[in-house]
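Structure in, sequence out. Go:
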């Protein structure tokens, strides 16, 4: 059987997960692809850092250049993270003609165009299944499975940490900080976890999916992002009473002016009748609407050592087969096939809204609020004033019809300054998946 040597950079949560998965299923993989993959070296930062699975000391080095420079290493994994040294590591391996497998969505999102160009130039491929949604083979599905579709819409719960936090806040009324610590302890969160809770990890993944689906690179700054830091159990409870669950959703939608797309990440009220409302804990799901295939759904663990290792092994099989057959992947990792692609500016993004106001309990308040919305041509779909509240202010919940983001933000700015409004208005978008 053909033998190939793997050089790994990074032996932490994901890296040690890959090492362990290869020990467990390396023979199975070899039987399936006809190539035996041997781990030759694993570069880490320090030998005695704790890692979820043990890596024998004799395989480890603290000098990553030993991995890329070793003539016996034919495939390299970058499982370090970050956008600085990791980029140097990948480029160094590609320049030596070695295919690279990465899980680094932050790096890809920011420098994807440059890295794919470097891969094309070197003739070695760059594989990135593990960069989006852990164990779910969504990159392969979009790249190969849906190669004959235009992707009209894509909705994803793509951050395991946020979904874990939101699930436990809803289920147990748990405290945000306590659940975040738990997510960190289980190896789900990024370092620092702000990347997760401020929505940037989801931004990176949504950008990669948007780029792959639409053939032009969508950079992080072009994506409208809000995280989950400001969400309260109160809003989670009101949403529940209205028949919704709050999820951090990454969305990519074709507008009526294709090749224009709307790309965003924000907490969203998802109707409880929609399948995405029932994706809980660290699980991720991506709902893809293709113009030929119709609606499809992908579901699985979005983070953690083993789920992510599964995606790396899939890339490893592709890389090994490409080397064995001296070919590139059938469908290239990323093709810039759309020259006129445009991302809708954030103020033009259209959605429906849930708004919670804290107002004085007096007649005439609603008239003042609706006058401002009316001037901005924003329609009110329903108004709810939950009973049983006493004190200087009471909650007033408005469900608004679809309107552009900029118009709603400006109107809420004015409403927030009304003397009858006692706190900054809370606004969460609503999605009906039409
Ligand atoms: P960890 O922090 O657990 O692991 C990082 C690894 O990189 C460690 O082994 C560390 O060494 C090593 N490292 C750091 N600096 C260097 C260096 N200069 N030279 C050599 N090795 C170095 O991170 P994760 O495994 O969680 O994440 C790795 C990548 O995978 C990131 O891009 C992340 O975004 C991505 N990812 C993570 C997922 C998850 O669930 N955790 C899921 C999907 C993607 P040492 O062990 O000595 O500290
Ligand atoms: N921190 C990421 C998450 C890891 O929670 O989804 C998986 O990419």
């Amino acid at each position: 059987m053909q033998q190939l040597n793997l050089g790994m950079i990074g032996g932490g949560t994901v890296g040690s997960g890959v090492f362990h998965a290869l020990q467990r299923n390396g023979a199975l993989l070899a039987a399936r692809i006809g190539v035996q993959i041997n781990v030759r070296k694993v570069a880490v930062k320090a030998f005695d850092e704790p890692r979820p699975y043990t890596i024998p000391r004799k395989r480890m080095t603290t000098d990553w250049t030993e991995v890329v420079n070793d003539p016996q290493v034919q495939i390299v994994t970058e499982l370090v993270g970050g956008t600085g040294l990791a980029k140097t590591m990948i480029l160094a391996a590609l320049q030596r003609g070695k295919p690279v497998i990465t899980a680094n969505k932050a790096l890809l999102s920011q420098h994807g165009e440059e890295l794919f160009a470097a891969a094309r130039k070197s003739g070695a491929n760059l594989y990135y299944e593990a960069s989006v949604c852990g164990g779910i083979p969504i990159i392969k599905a979009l790249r190969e499975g849906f190669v004959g579709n235009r992707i009209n819409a894509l909705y994803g719960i793509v951050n395991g940490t946020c979904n874990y936090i939101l699930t436990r806040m809803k289920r147990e009324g748990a405290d945000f900080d306590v659940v975040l610590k738990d997510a960190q302890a289980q190896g789900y969160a990024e370092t620092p976890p702000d990347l997760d809770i401020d929505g940037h990890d989801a931004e990176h993944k949504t950008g990669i999916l948007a780029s792959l689906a639409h053939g032009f690179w969508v950079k992080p700054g072009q994506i409208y992002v809000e995280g989950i830091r400001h969400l309260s159990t109160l809003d989670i409870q009101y949403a529940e009473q209205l028949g919704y669950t709050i999820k951090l959703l990454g969305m990519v939608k074709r507008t009526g002016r294709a090749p224009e797309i709307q790309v965003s990440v924000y907490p969203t009220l998802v109707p409880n009748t929609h399948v995405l409302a029932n994706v809980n804990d660290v699980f991720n799901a991506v709902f893809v609407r293709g113009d030929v295939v119709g609606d499809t759904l992908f579901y699985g663990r979005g983070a953690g050592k083993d789920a992510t290792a599964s995606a790396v092994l899939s890339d490893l099989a592709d890389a090994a087969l490409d080397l064995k057959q001296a070919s590139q992947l059938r469908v290239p990792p990323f093709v810039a096939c759309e020259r006129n692609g445009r991302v809708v500016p954030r103020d033009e993004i259209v959605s429906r809204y849930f708004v919670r106001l804290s107002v004085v309990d007096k007649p005439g308040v609603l008239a003042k609020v609706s006058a401002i919305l009316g001037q901005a041509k924003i329609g009110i779909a329903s108004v709810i004033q939950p009973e049983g509240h006493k004190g200087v202010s009471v909650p007033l919940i408005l469900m608004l019809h679809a309107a552009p983001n900029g118009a709603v933000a400006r109107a809420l700015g004015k409403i927030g300054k009304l003397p009858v409004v006692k706190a900054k208005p809370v606004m969460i978008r609503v999605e009906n998946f039409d």
